[in-house]
Amino acid sequence: MPFAQGELRWGLACGIGSDGHWHGWFDVRVRADALRRLGLHPDQPTAEPVGPSPPRWWHADAERLATNWPC
Question: pTM here?
Answer without folding.
Answer: 0.46
